[in-house]
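Quick review question:
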């Protein structure tokens, strides 16, 4: 058997949004796990709304996430001639017919159906026209659409997510649905089926908002004499309020999360769990692990909830798992942009930078968190957090005594290493008769300006002897006023 072929087919009318990225990821994971091919098709037939900027944003989103595709990108707008040829095949096979009804006539039919308390169904009046009448109207230039002739019976498929889904054909839409507009451009369902046949797509995995399109598309596959692919309709993504995810819930474009300091691996991990479970209560996974564990059996029928707090937690897990060297490539532009250092300085102190990142990454949720926590290690003079000062330096006189004694002890330390500094300060605590924490916390605020930081001895080593002692002196001056 040939390997499965899957596609992701976004419309370039906006940015790559969270739901689209999740759909792309599931298609990609399926292809990589089962040894298939993953293809990308840009559905740019809506010329009025499709833009090059949106197309670039889709590609940028893929590049950031690290998802690749296996063949050249297909642009749906370039396939108009084939779409029209497929419509002619359906006309020739008597599976479709031309409809000359005007919008006014259709409005009258809808109004009549409403007055009868019935759902509107096209009454097929144009399907009853004699061949000669049809040819006369075409020759006169009368505009027409092409409608697919809906057969009797039921259309069913075994959905990879929802199991068997069936539609009575008489209940599908408004009856004989349009497949070609009066300007000879195809309707979505015809274009999609034509392209999927040409691309030899065997699995169509998409959001379950497309379930109502599927019976129409299955009928078109069959009418065109093509094999029907397998379908998998993924659950929608909702916001924390249970409503469909939208801009009111915050950022919905994938690119926004890159600028919020989220790692692509964390975003992929988070998206994968929106509608899929690997089993065994596994949550934190690398992309190769997701490929290994992926199975359609783990796909959920229920709507998924997009929880920003969970995403930030997930990002923190991936920050901890990522090497300092790899994080540095993403952090250096942010550090430069924040004006904390020059490129030359970072190159000259690369080992020091890696050491700093290694200490800060375990305390951060985003890349921006790391940059914010890194600031005291770059700047000359720290700003003191008011809450940290109020709590940690509450007794000003006692704090001055502790900081003076700490400065004297540190200044006379034989070596500026964690294993040399720690016993010196702990010995000082014993001499003064207080717990070591009573020394460490006032000192931490003096060194960093904040109440939370990596271990105090790591902070001292990262700052170095000269800058550490200068920070303590500055704190003593502040406390003296």
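Suggested answer, residue by residue:
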């Amino acid at each position: 058997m040939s390997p499965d072929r899957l596609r992701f087919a976004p419309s370039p009318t906006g940015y790559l949004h969270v739901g689209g990225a999740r759909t792309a990821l599931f298609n990609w994971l399926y292809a990589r796990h089962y040894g298939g091919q993953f293809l990308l098709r840009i559905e740019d037939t809506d010329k009025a709304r499709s833009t090059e900027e949106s197309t670039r944003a889709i590609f940028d989103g893929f590049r950031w996430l690290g998802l690749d595709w296996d063949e050249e990108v297909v642009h749906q707008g370039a396939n108009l001639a084939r779409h029209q040829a497929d419509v002619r095949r359906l006309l020739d096979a008597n599976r479709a017919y031309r409809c000359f009804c005007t919008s006014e006539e259709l409005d009258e039919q809808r109004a009549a159906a409403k007055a009868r308390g019935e759902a509107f169904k096209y009454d097929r009046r144009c399907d009853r026209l004699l061949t000669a009448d049809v040819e006369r109207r075409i020759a006169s230039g009368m505009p027409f659409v092409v409608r697919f002739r809906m057969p009797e019976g039921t259309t069913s498929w075994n959905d990879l997510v929802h199991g068997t889904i069936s539609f009575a054909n008489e209940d599908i839409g408004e009856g004989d649905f349009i497949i070609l507009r009066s300007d000879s451009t195809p309707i979505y369902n015809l274009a999609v089926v034509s392209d999927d046949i040409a691309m030899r797509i065997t699995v169509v995995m998409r959001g379950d908002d497309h379930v109502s399109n599927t019976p129409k598309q299955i009928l078109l596959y069959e009418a065109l004499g093509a094999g029907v692919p397998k379908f998998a309709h993924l659950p929608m993504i909702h916001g924390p309020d249970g409503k469909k995810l939208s801009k009111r819930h915050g950022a919905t474009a994938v690119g926004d999360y890159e600028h919020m300091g989220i790692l692509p691996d964390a975003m992929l991990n988070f998206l994968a769990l929106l509608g899929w479970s690997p089993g065994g209560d596994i949550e934190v996974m690398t992309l190769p692990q997701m490929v290994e564990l992926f199975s359609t059996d783990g796909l959920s029928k229920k709507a998924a909830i997009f929880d920003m707090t969970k995403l930030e937690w997930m990002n923190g897990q991936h920050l901890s798992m990522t090497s300092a060297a790899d994080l540095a490539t993403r952090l250096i532009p942010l550090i430069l942009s924040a004006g904390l250092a020059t490129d030359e300085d970072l190159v000259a102190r690369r080992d020091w930078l890696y050491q700093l990142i290694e200490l800060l990454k375990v305390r951060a949720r985003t890349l921006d968190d790391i940059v914010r926590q890194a600031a005291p290690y770059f700047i000359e003079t720290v700003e003191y957090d008011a809450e940290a000062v109020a709590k940690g330096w509450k007794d000003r006189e006692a704090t001055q005594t502790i900081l003076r004694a700490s400065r004297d002890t540190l200044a006379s330390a034989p070596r500026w290493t964690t294993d040399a500094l720690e016993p010196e300060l702990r010995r000082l605590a014993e001499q003064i008769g207080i717990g070591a924490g009573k020394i460490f916390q006032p000192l931490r605020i003096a060194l960093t300006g904040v109440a939370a930081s990596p271990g105090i001895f790591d902070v001292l080593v990262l700052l170095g002897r000269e800058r550490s002692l200068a920070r303590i002196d500055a704190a003593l001056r502040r406390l003296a006023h």
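Why it works: The first helix runs from residue 18 to 34. The chain has four domains: 73-234, 247-320, 323-379, 380-481.
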